[in-house]
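In response to reviewer comment 3 from the previous cycle, which asked for concrete evidence that the modeling workflow produces usable outputs, we include below a single protein chain processed end to end. The sequence was submitted unchanged, and the resulting structure tokens are shown without manual editing.
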Amino acid sequence: MNEYDSNRIYDFAKNINYKKTDKIEEADCYVLNTCHIREKATEKVYHDVGRIKKTFRNKNKPIVVITGCVAQAEGEILLKKEKYIDAVIGPQSYHKFNEVILNIEKNLCKIDSTDFDVIEKFDYLNLFKNSDSNVSSFLTVQEGCDKFCKFCVVPYTRGPEYSRSIEELVVETKNLVNNGAKEITLLGQNVNAYNYEGKKLSDLICEISKIDDLKRIRYTTSHPLDFSKDLIQAHKKFKKLMPLIHLPVQSGSNKILKNMGRNHSVEDYILIINELKKANPLIKFSSDFIIGYPGETDKDFEETLKLLKEVSFINSYSYIYSPRPGTPAARMKKTDITVAKNRLYIFQKTAEEIKIKYRKRLFNKISSVMFENKIGNKGEFFGRDEYLNSVIVKSEKNLIGRVEKVRIYEGNHNTLFGKIKDFENKDFAA
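The workflow returned the following structure tokens.
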């Protein structure tokens, strides 16, 4: 979502004659788009600003703007604590970016723009074309969260759940496709909570799947509580919908899930997994796990390992619990850090073993790969298969934007390598 937000901020900035630069020392305006979910996110803001101060020590100071969730959470505190920062703009106010910048240029003032006016934001966004022309593009369809998990700051920084209309999303999708996008990833804090005047995520998928030149549809991030039967059946009905679902569970222990305020059980989660597999046997899963959550015992951790093995996630993103100021979990007694680190090591080692076994099963198999860009001058092209695995092939043809059948012959930790066949046993790729 941060990547999408960054792209839209740039769309605005172009209208007041700003353009991107890869050379920080040439910048007239420095924008740091932040995520509060990451550990020590606020400290990293001050670190980055310090780096900018050092870069411009003997030069004219650029306008420094902090956007995103840290801006929302800290607001005026950032402006008071670090005088080098000129403005903070929250996630629901970044449509005011141009107004803020022009105001700073004219009046040399400090600005705190952290209002929660999501309707105004999206009304404004609709006036601007999304210039993202990547083969794979992102589209925010839903924002905010009403779940209030005890460890999470998102409800406080992004506000309540809000969904955009299907009509405006279809228009924006068509714009992205006209600009070269072949794949759209629908974004939301709880994307499957999408609900606009009774229309659900499955209805949105149905509508955008009708766009001829759109080849692939994905969505992230889902919540187990919002996995409705119609969305499950969408994975059976719509061929453009990719068979990879990122479905965070956070823990395999019912006790810990209750302490987290997740409001679902491990059994509920497994039921969703099984129903999705029944709808589409090709579906695979990735997930998020918090290790060392307050109150986690060895038994709780073993139950989490059991779930990891049972579902056999092809990707698992795991972190040691770190408290977020203002959340209920921040007041709970922490798990010993040495214990937590040891559990994380065991978990990630197990997850990696599962991933390696899965990737080896892909060798000598055919994958459907969408190619996104060319690598260097060796005729190599980079793409991703249905499950977001990175794939590299050599070809004399320009593969960018194309979906090709690729036979995988080897791979490493991060990348698969393959050859394109025409199925008459004639290679057009070396």
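The radius of gyration is 23 Å. We consider this sufficient to address the reviewer's concern, and the full set will be provided in the supplementary archive.
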